[in-house]
Design a protein that fits this description.
- The protein has 300 residues and is α/β, with parallel strands linked by helices.
- The protein contains nine helices and 14 strands.
- The chain folds into two domains: 3-99, 2-Layer Sandwich (Alpha-Beta Plaits); 142-296, Rossmann fold (3-Layer(aba) Sandwich), CATH 3.40.50.150.
- It has helices at 12-24, 73-83, 102-108, 150-162, 178-185, 198-210, 237-242, 244-249, 267-274, and strands at 3-11, 29-34, 60-68, 93-97, 113-115, 119-122, 134-137, 169-172, 191-194, 216-218, 228-234, 251-263, 278-286, 289-296.
- Strand 5 (113-115) and strand 6 form a beta hairpin.
- Helix 1 (12-24) crosses helix 2 (73-83) and helix 4 runs parallel beside helix 5 (178-185).
Length: 300
């Protein structure tokens, strides 16, 4: 079967609606790009990971719809435009798409990721790269955290160097569960992962089962009472500051905390908040992001 791509450039306020309409009418997939990309007018849309962008498209957006050969592009676009009240339909161009094994092509974009001394994050369709590797099998998914972002990498490197067998670990804002799973594989017990997103909790549970890692997951209200030897939170600077008192209270006296999701320019502000209870310092910086670590003093 042959495929074609339908390309439509239009204003931001219509991009998302047209995308949805095209999918409803039979487009195989739809993506939205910045029509001004690689020009002086290019505009960044996303900021720090986890933040919801202010807009769902660019000022000048390019909608790209993948169509099977039986679809008439003009008819499909006209029908989609009509649902939005666009009359006439916006102009479009077409380009042929070379027939490919799309599953294989998508998988080829995600290779095993080496982290730290011997950690490898390995998609399920790859073999472990080394027999003595500490392997985490994770496929790219909806929950943030596959080891590719500097903040995740920093926390993983710190855990690899810091976790001792039998220590209790709390991963607050666990996302995919990658940090909790790594802590367990490094010998931690018990390990708890908490996230505000039920979908992330479900994803983390699935990933832990796949990796044969015993971790207890839940929403914030499910967080167990008591203190932990290690608390790790890879979130964002503002939530970390807001939750400082709570997170500090989860660290046992003499225990340690690791915080990331923090830009280098934000490190001093975050450390200042936590310094009320812990002696904080920048552990390492990578690509403009930092991992802050600290040890809790004997009393809060």
């Amino acid at each position: 079967m042959s495929y074609r791509e339908l390309l439509v450039t239009l204003a931001r306020e219509h991009a998302e609606g047209l995308s949805d309409a095209l999918l409803d009418l039979g487009a195989l997939s739809v993506s939205v790009e910045d029509a001004d990309a690689d020009t002086p007018d290019e505009q960044p849309l996303f900021g720090e990971p986890g933040l919801v962008p202010e807009h769902a498209a660019w000022q000048h957006s390019r909608v790209i719809a993948l169509l099977a050969e039986e679809h008439d592009p003009a008819v499909l676009l006209t029908a989609a435009a009509n649902t939005l009240g666009l009359d006439p339909a916006p102009p479009f161009t077409l380009r042929d798409v070379e027939e490919q094994d799309w599953v294989r092509l998508t998988q080829s974009q995600f290779e095993p990721i080496p982290i730290g001394q011997r950690i490898w994050v390995v998609p399920s369709w790859h073999e472990a790269p080394a027999p003595d590797a500490l392997v985490l099998e994770l496929d790219p998914g909806l929950a943030f955290g596959t080891g590719s972002h500097p903040t995740t990498r920093l926390c993983m490197e710190w855990l690899e160097q810091s976790v001792k067998a039998g220590q209790s670990v709390l991963d607050y804002g666990c996302g995919s569960g990658i940090l909790a799973i790594l802590a367990k594989k490094c010998g931690a017990h018990p390990v708890t992962g908490i996230d505000i997103d039920p979908q992330a909790v479900a994803s983390a549970r699935s990933n832990s089962e796949r990796n044969h890692a015993e971790v207890t997951y839940g929403l914030p209200d499910d967080c167990p009472p008591g203190e932990f030897d290690i608390v790790v939170a890879n979130i964002l600077s503002n939530p970390l500051k807001l939750m400082a008192s709570m997170l500090a209270s989860k660290v046992r006296p003499g225990g340690r905390i690791a915080l990331s999701g923090i830009l280098a320019r934000q490190a001093q502000d975050v450390a200042q908040v936590y310094n009320q209870w812990l002696d904080m310092a920048v552990w390492r910086e990578h690509e403009g992001w930092v991992c802050l670590t600290g040890t809790r003093r004997e009393s809060l």
